[in-house]
From TrEMBL:
Residues 1-24 are annotated as: Disordered. InterPro entries: PPR-containing_protein (IPR050667), PPR_rpt (IPR002885), TPR-like_helical_dom_sf (IPR011990). This is Pentatricopeptide repeat-containing protein. Residues 14-23 have a biased composition (Pro residues). The keyword Cell inner membrane does not apply. Keywords: Repeat. Belongs to the PPR family. P subfamily. PPR repeats lie at residues 277-312, 313-347, 348-382, 384-418.
Amino acid sequence: MGTGCNHMKASANTPPPPPPAEPLPVSLGPLAIAAEVGTTLLHGQLAIKAWSSPSILQAPQTHDPQTNHPPPVHPFLLLLLLLLPPPPPPPSPFTSFSAVKSAIANEPDPDKLAQLFESESAAFARFRRHRPLFHLSVRKLARSHRFDLIQRILAHSISTSPPSQLASEGFWLRVVTLYSEAGMVDQAIETLHQMQAQHSCPRTEKSLCAILSVYLHNKIYDDRFHRAFATFPAQLGVSPGVNSLNLVLKAFCSAKDVDSARALVARMESDFNVAPDIHSYNILLGGYLEKGVKSGGFDEVVREISDKGLEPNLTTYNHRILRFCKSKECTRAKKLLDEMVGKGVEPNSASYNAIIFGFCKVGDLESAKTVLEKMVADGFATPPSFAYYTMMKHMVEEGEFDKALEMCKEIIRRKWVPPFEAMEGLVKGLAKLSKADEAKEAVQLMKKRLRGTAVDAWGKVEAALPL
């Protein structure tokens, strides 16, 4: 009896077992279930509304009904959810892409910037095509030393890219460049390996150039650079061409090893079946200039350019002009400037500046002024402030105070600020010549151009002037 009573008590405290689940009809498949399921989008989130009975959408309940665990979802419904398209991103709080750019440019908090990048790159199709915004974001995060966030936003950019973009070599190389700009060399190389895993992505010499440029940009010219050049062509399935070999030349010259660069040019055709181009020789000319005009080799390269029938370009002429000016052969540099114009090669401001500075260094201010006037008249390049500052400084040093005053007025007319040191020398020189009115005029002209802290800085200089 006692045993029976105890059994009855236990039965009274135990809930009855749940009724067996209604068997799933054999004919009911995913399409039938789909007809029973309505989908709606609420604030960008997918909501599933089951209009059918729980017995259809739920697997048989084998769990304890007294727990709070929800009943398991039927496998057919899980399959349906996988087949449904992903929900669209939530609506952007920004009304235009310009507002997004402004928000990222002005956001001081690195974490918020990364969140903006991730959310708005999905909301605006133009975001992915706007390369300056990628560079700006990476640059700001790098300044904050948040390299973890740089890796996060670039990984997000890769993971959310469509297959067509992942099949583009240019897309991957842009990511490599962004990592390089942030100084993240290892991540740049890893990105190239990721690209290799994309079998649908074609690879060309551009990929080899990109990885070599990463090392050059980060001033890595040692064995790591040369190991990369030795191993990556085989990994990428590409052959070195003149562009990648020119990057090797740059690495040698940047490391002050011009002799190795010269030797590589000599064997490019025999070892790589690639003829050096004018850019190859320009790199050599630049290397010899850095080494010093007395190091030799520069003139040999110029002769070789002529012997091979290569057409000199702007860089070639600028290197030669600078070499003449460093050797105090400014008249020959001026003739070379006339030659390049005659051959249809347009000079830039560096072409003129080198000659102006060269003439000033040897005290020929009239010739320097003639070249400056020629630059203005030719119209090939906008005269920079440097040329005028150089002229004024050397006029003061040579005691040509009247000419220096005219140059000062021209500088101010162009809305620049004359250098303080030259202005101080000009005013003192005019005062010594008993030209106090001219000196005061120069000071007043100067003060009209000053702004901010420059006003106080000039005030200290002016207080010591003999006015």
